[in-house]
Design goal:
The chain has four helices and no strands. It has about 160 residues and is mostly helical. Helix 1 packs antiparallel against helix 3 and helix 2 packs across helix 3.
């Protein structure tokens, strides 16, 4: 065989194998770039989900904490007896207005969540159902006229997800 033919054949084989290796790595790079883009999109969606949840969750948690604190003060610390029944006019006014404000703030946050829960993606439907169950249990306690059996109290007709549980 001619030396030139052997060199040309080897050059062609090296060029062909170089093209095959380059194509293979290019394909891997494309697949990895697509996976990286999917991970970035998933992280972005998760961050948006967390942001949306904090927009709804945080105000409700603060309102629930304030409401729970006021109920504790009323039941265990005799708040209404001290400030409303035996207090001065200014104390009575404060006790009434601040208690109504705390209760209204909590109930308003619950209503905002109730209206939007059907549109919120809480990660999965079971999480949404759990939130609704908890809100329904709290609603039953607030609608009751006793301490022992919150389901035996008076019921207020509601619309939307809480009324349909």
């Amino acid at each position: 065989m001619n030396t030139e033919l052997v060199v040309a054949s080897l050059s062609g084989a090296v060029a062909l194998s170089s093209i095959l290796v380059s194509a293979r790595f290019s394909r891997k790079q494309t697949v990895l770039a697509a996976q990286l883009e999917q991970q970035g999109a998933a992280q972005s969606k998760f961050a948006e989900h967390q942001d949306l949840m904090s927009q709804r969750r945080d105000p409700l948690l603060w309102a629930a904490f304030d409401f729970q604190s006021r109920l504790f003060n009323i039941v265990d610390r005799d708040f209404l007896n001290v400030y409303y029944t035996h207090g001065h006019d200014r104390d009575r006014d404060y006790a009434l207005r601040s208690t109504l404000h705390v209760a209204g703030e909590y109930l308003g946050q619950v209503e905002l969540l109730r209206r939007r829960i059907q549109f919120l993606d809480l990660g999965n439907r079971e999480s949404s159902r759990t939130v609704v169950r908890h809100l329904t249990a709290i609603s039953n306690v607030l609608n009751s006229d006793g301490y022992d059996d919150p389901t035996s109290g008076y019921s207020v007709a509601t619309s939307g997800p809480l009324g349909n549980c």
